Amino acid sequence: MSGVTAVFNKLKFFRSLCNVYAKNNYISENTSSIFNTHNLIKYECSFVRHLYCAVPRNAAGFKHRDRKDLLRSVAKIDEGVGEENAVSLDASITSKEDMFVDEKTPYLLFGGIPFNQLPICNIKVTKNNTIINLTDFENIYYLTSCIYINLDKVIAFRSAGSEGFKKCRKGTNVAGQATALAVSSKAVKLGIKDVRLKVQGLGPGRMAAIKGLQMGGLNIISVTDDTRISFKPSARPRKAKRL
Amino acid sequence: MRHPKFISRTVLVRNGNLDEAVGIVNKIMGKEGFFDQFRRTRFYEKPTQFRRRINYEKCKALYDEDMNRKIQFILRKHRHNPFPGCI
Asked: What is the domain extent for residue B31?
């Protein structure tokens, strides 16, 4: 008990020092003095921790807490969908009715070309890579009522790997942006200006690639999300990773 | 063709404001649970995990419903006394 009182007394002393130095704005960052306010607070914290750690505990019971702390300290993965959890969705949509596609949109003219004949920029974003290809409009030939073949000509094709990013650097937003810039520069050389955008997958390169295309001088007419999602039971995915 | 391209999940860019359009697409996809489903199906979800998740979601939905009702009750307007319980 006496030990605890001693710690408390020390705590009081440090706290009073803290107050005094905080009032006098005595913050010396260059000289690593013990009277630095920051240091004082740090010591105070360590004393408090010492106080609580004095009680013997079962380490196993705190394992899950350590794990949670660890996971909390890990940076959140950027998947290029920052606005996903933004609020006030309905209010924002009601004022933007003209941004959605209707039956007339395929025949709207953009730079003299109807919407359904504009070149398409396909972006495939994965965790480890960003692949962009630019095609002319989809020539869809129906063989029967349900089978069709897609004969679109690829104009430009680039991936983060082909841009010189190797290994884990491929799966970064910088790589995504560089890839997009390369594609857009080639497209601009060929005289393509207006494109439709089709994005597939989530990953760090998602938003960066979209921004990069715009920075490279392409005029993006529409944004489509084409991520493959199935709500039905399909082929069994791979085994989950265990940390 | 069941899901015609460039009609579903498509937003037009207005006045060159690309961020706005992308934001709308992301918001809608997120709110409808597409991204959640996509992330969930990257790895196999064991039946136990599936049961736990479903039960948790059920409980959370019930709790949210009740809590929202309570909040709406507290926030209701057109009362004689605008601050009930306060002197």
From this structure: 10-43
What's the pLDDT score for residue A68? 78
**Structure tokens given for A224:** 């489509």
- Find the radius of gyration of the CA atoms of chain A: 29
What is residue A124's predicted lDDT score, i.e. its pLDDT? 94
Based on the domain organization, do B38 and B17 belong to the same domain? yes
What's the pLDDT tens digit per position in A86-121? 665 555 555 677 888 888 888 889 888 898 889 999
Residue A114 contacts B, CB cutoff 8 Å: no
The answer for residues whose C-beta is within 8 angstroms of residue A105's C-beta and 6 or more apart is A115, B7, B12
By the 8 A CB rule, do B9 and B29 touch?
Answer: yes
Class of domain A101-225 (CATH, top level): alpha beta
Nearest chain B CA: its distance from A58 CA (Å): 27
Q: How many CB pairs under 8 A join A and B?
A: 125
Q: What is the pLDDT of residue B47?
A: 95
Contact A210 B22 (CB under 8 A): yes
B53 and B39 in a common domain? no
- Is residue A116 within 8 A of residue A129, CB to CB? The reply is no
The answer to whether the CB of A40 falls within 8 A of the CB of A18 is: yes
